[in-house]
Amino acid sequence: MPSPASYLLLNPAKPFSLRRLSYTPPRLHARRLHVSCDAPRGSGRSAGGRREAIPAGARQAKKQIVFFDAAPPVAQPQQGGSAVEKGASEKPTTKEGGGNAALALLRRATKKTLAALSNLPLAISEMFAIAALMALGTVIDQGEAPSYYFEKFPEDNPVFGFITWRWILTPGFDHMFSSPVFLGLLALLAASLMACTYTTQLPMVKVARRWSFTHSGERIKKQEFSDSLPRASIQDLGVILMGAGYEVFTKGPSLYAFKGLAGRYAPIGVHLAMLFIMAGATLSATGSFKGSVDVPQGLNFVIGDVMKPRGVLSVAPDVFNTEVHVNRFYMEYYDSGEVSQFYSDLSLFNLDGKEVMRKTIKVNDPLRYGGITIYQTDWGFSALQVKKNGEGPFNLAMAPLKLNGDKKLYGTFLPLEDSDSSNPSVKGISMLARDLQSIVLYDQDGKFVGVRRPSSKLPIEINGNEILIEDAIGSTGLDLKTDPGVPIVYAGFGALMLTTCISYLSHSQIWALQDGSTVVVGGKTNRAKLEFSEEMNRLLDKVPELIGANNENVVDCKSTAT
């Protein structure tokens, strides 16, 4: 058998199918040499020797001659079709077929899931549900003991006829922002944002980045804006567009220009910013610590002793070993006597007893150290230092008294010896105070005696006893918190404001085609369509001016040469 064998493969409009020979040559690698030539006009000869007419469309087609070092392998003819056709019709093995079917099913399920999650009405519904839960969390007191909800939402007298403590405690609405319902809605909204970004925003950006040239004047004329420039060139138009801030590209007689591509990226940035905000809120709800303490002036406390974890991701840092000392607590007052501001002078000490920080805090001016924030939130009356007949001073604890409203009132009692042993009741001097600047005194019969300021050092006689108010010791109310999600939330809101502003930038596209001496121009934009039309008219009016200026320069050059 001759080797190498040569095969003439015709490549007309419809490819011919070649009949296979009845022998099986050895399986060898082929080296192919392609030669192209024009197909002869007329008729061709089939494999059986019959002359067949070559289709008209194939007469001008190219022939491709392929030379092989050895004959390509051919299969033995089989009854009911060739071996190649039979092999192509065979089904894959069960394992491969099952894997392909499972992969196709997974792809279809993923596609349907993404389509469902990226549905705009679903995302809007999720945001409204989250907003409703947030509003509900501001109405329901958060973080109280269960007994508080038993008392405020009793089953025998439901609020609005149906809301009881079960509606609050069962879904976890007593800690709304870390409840499974709220966090689940955040996760669902995050999934919707990611699905929308993947299925809608990213493809739009990819399309917008392509340099889409067009060679059809009719297509350009169908744009939102279109016009024709006689006796102009796309080069002149490109110069004008570049001066207006467009990115200009040319290819032969076609021109494509765009600007404002950042406006296409902005929706993706908005989605990412919202994801940052939700991630930070979730981290705050599940990874923070919180605590509160009332500390009298001059006493200490360890931060870790008052901090409680708020979620499963809460991890105590080393700074929890820091000790806080209240150096001084004092208040400022209005002219009416009402408290205007209260201050706490705090010192922080490490394990070695070294002071690492000191600051006087007040309301809206907290202390921050090592990721921990200490807020000034409340004040109290801890003790009253009193001298009796020159003895003492005695520290009398001040107890808060219940009053209607937000007014505070504290009281204490100084017992006196009763000479009448037949009367078993204990009598003494009562002292009341609304704040740290004045003390009201009553005798053992409950009669008003007078008012003294702790700083006055003026004694007062009550029931034959000389009483001197030495000092009023206040206590500071502090809230402590660690919140690792705050920087993420702030960064998310900053990015949200920035990308929202960028999203208002218009993405404008312009196409132009040189048709003889005329330039056909068309364009569109996604925003500010009226402004875009006015801008295009203004830019196109500059093209004749540029052409005239160029012509004048040419004339000047010719005159100079002459």
From TrEMBL:
Gene Ontology cellular component list: membrane
For the ResB-like domain, which residue ranges apply?
Answer: 122-387, 393-536
Protein name, as recorded: ResB-like domain-containing protein
Instruction: Quote the Pfam families the UniProt record gives.
Output: ResB (PF05140)
Where does the protein end up?
A: Membrane
Tell me the keywords, alphabetical order. Answer: Cytochrome c-type biogenesis, Membrane, Transmembrane, Transmembrane helix
Query: Does the record carry Transmembrane as a key word?
Result: yes
Q: Which organism does this record belong to?
A: Panicum hallii var. hallii
Please state the protein's primary subcellular location: membrane
Name the GO terms of the biological process aspect. cytochrome complex assembly
Superkingdom of source: Eukaryota
Annotated stretches, region: Disordered: 74-97
